[in-house]
Structures are given as structure tokens and as C-alpha cells.
């Protein structure tokens, strides 16, 4: 009788997931992770050719500033600079009262109305996307007592097709799997579909699906909202930020804000992170410095998970630590467990 009751509860619970629970996520892109990624000094980005001087209502970007001082024994972080916002999905705002906020989505000086689709495709190919990468983490935290587990973040790509897979497991408590599936564009990742599966003891598997359908986004709760330029999902945001800092390393500067539209299973809104001063981390892959990205108030609803990540310039701007906080009831701390593994170039 107890088994029958649990079965009925599970069926009713799963029936509330909506149409997105009926079909399975896309098949996994087949990748072999064969080589370890060691920390190395990030390349210095070449400065673009300055445009012809002209009067503008926008203030000119500030002169480049060096990164914060670090102890002599720590690996160098390299120079950074504060620059005006570049085109793309991620907005950066410098939080200095004397510096006016740059206009959102301002075209780059090299762009023009005469640019052809072929030139846009060439721009996408010009950026050397990192090979498929797997990051493994140890998980510790608390949920009605101490908990431990493991997590993985996988970036898989095949030509212009990408997948980001995030798996977080806590022994005897919960496992969550997140999959973003989409395409690579000159503006970074363009999700087509997001699937979120949650395994809970005695409840089975809950699946929620978000679909990005042209001009609209179909949320997992059945609602449809207009799409937004550069919108990301809960899994793709990790790689989108890595892409952004790989292509704009000077933007990883304490005091700045990074914002982009984020589509969650039940709502879509602008998400804001603040770049904090770099912190030293002692990891299995070695000692390195990483910049925390902290979610700002107003981004989260009371029942949503607050995600903070630490970006390491010497490891291709990958997130080497991720924390997840849910109200005052649960906290998970994911710390990189060894060197990231990558596919052959």
C-alpha cells in the first residue's frame, strides 16, 4: 500500500511539469577528454586600432589600469584595463561616479551597416573557441546537516553545435543535471533548449524544459515571454562568461558589473554580477588567483538559488570555484578537483 501511494504521488507530481517533461534532452555530443590543462599566463589581448577622433556624447574610456597588487610569491594575473562597453550579449558597467555608464550595445568602431553575413561568419571563426572541456569539483556544504558530493561542468562542441552539461550530486539528498544545447555565434552562445532534471529520493525525476523559439522563449511553467538579445540559461551562463572574458580580458576588473538576460524555468530577467577583487586559492591544480563574481541584489527572487563563481585567468577564465546558496536552508561549495581535462585540438 505504501509503494502504491508513493507511485501515485510521483505520477501526480510529474504531471505538473508541463509539456517539457514528455521528451528527452538531445543526445550528448561525443567527445574524448584526453589532455590536462595546466595553469598558464593568459595572453595579452591586442588593443584594437583607435577610431578617428570625433566629438561624442559618450565619454572616452579610461586609460588602462594595472590589476590589483598580489604577493610576490603568487602567480601574476597580468594587466587589466577599464574600457567602454563592446558589442555582444554581456553588458559591463564601471561603478565609478565620475565615469558615465556607456550606452548599451553600442556598435564597435569596426562594425558598419555594410557588413555582410559572410563577414559576421568570419568573425565567429576568427575566435579560437576552447576545445571541449570537463571540470570536476568536490562538493561540501550543508542541508539539515553537513553534506558532501561531487559535481562536473562539461563544455562540448562539434563545429558550431555546443552543449554545456552541469551535474551536481549530493549523496542521499539530491542530484541535479542541467543541459544547454545550442549554437556558437559571433556574440557567444545561443541556446536553443535548456533541460533541468532533478532526482529526489522517493520522488523520482523531475524534468523542466525551456525552449528558445525565435522571437519567444517557452518557459517550463507553460508561460511564453519575448526573447532578449544575448539571453542565456542556467547552464550556458558559465561558458558564456568564460567566452566573454577570453575575448574581453580587460573587463575582469574589480568594481565592474556584468549583466545579461537569463532564462530560468519559471521566468526570464536581467542577471547582474559584480566583479570583486581577486582572491588566492590553493587548489589541487596549484595555487592561483581568481576573481569572484557575486550576484547583486535584485537579480534573485526569494526562492531562487544564488550562484557565485570564481574566474581564473590562468585557467582560460574557467570557473574554478562555484557556490550555490538557497535562502538560509542549503549551501553547496564546489571546488575544482584537479586539472581540467580537454579534448585534443
TrEMBL record:
It holds the Pfam family DUF3108. Residues 56-76 have a biased composition (Low complexity). It comes from the Bacteria. Residues 43-77 are annotated as: Disordered. This is DUF3108 domain-containing protein.
